Amino acid sequence: MTTLRWIAVGYAFALLAAASLNYIPGLTDAEGRAFGIFALDIFDDLLHVASAVWACVAAFLSHRASRVFLLYFGILYFADGLMGLVTGSGYLDLGIINYGVLDLPFVFKVMANLPHLALGGFAMASVYLFGKEA
Length: 134
Description:
Blueprint: H1 3-19, E1 33-34, E2 38-39, H2 42-61, H3 63-87, H4 95-98, H5 106-130
Antiparallel strand pairs: 1-2
């Protein structure tokens, strides 16, 4: 199994963990925010589960499928994080439609969007670093 396939497997587990945050007692505060930073709703959970299934299927199929997953996933999630930094709402969970542009403190926006920026950035970097592996 190639490095990209293993990375896709790791993404499947990470995304399933993200989808489970609302359902583990003690990880959300009284306002329903995970780690006191961001609130995850059903759109977020569905997005994370669908992305995890995509990652798992890609890892199972081939190196090429894992490469495609990591490239497009990376672009989508990183762009969502950038949009969140600028507007306070992302597009993948329909936040920009449901909540519009939010006037939030910049540090809060960074903390709330860091997971998508990091996951997307690492996915794209892994394609660049390990994409030629056969």
